[in-house]
Please model this.
Amino acid sequence: MATANILEEPLPLYSTLSMSFYQMAECPMSKSYIKSILKLTQIPLYEFIDLIPISIDTYKRKKVFNPSVSERVLQIEEVYRAGLEAFDSDFHTWLRTPSPIFSNQPPKNLLQNSFGTRHLLEHIGRMAHGVLA
Model:
């Protein structure tokens, strides 16, 4: 069941989250939270909108978004937090570089859905621990 809390701002990159992503996904999310994630990811707004379940018009019109938007934004945030923690700013370059591991596509393309974000998280975890295969 959704709570009355509204996610306003994410914590700084290397701080521990006060709530789990699971709990946060049940909360509505403010536009300011999404703007902070846009800065974190360095993804242009028009590309980011294609990754979340709203249109650009809805984004422009609303100030608070429902939990389905929160969940998707948090999935993307989780990938970026893990990647940036493991590889610093090199992670942004890695995401944009086509890789044979991902059928010669940039890893960023996997952000399209939850299956892709999960695969990216698994791959980032393996790379962070030196397991490349």
Q: What stands out?
A: The CA atoms of residues 31 and 60 lie 9 Å apart. The first strand starts at residue 29 and ends at 30. Residues 28-128 form one domain. The chain has a mean pLDDT of 89.
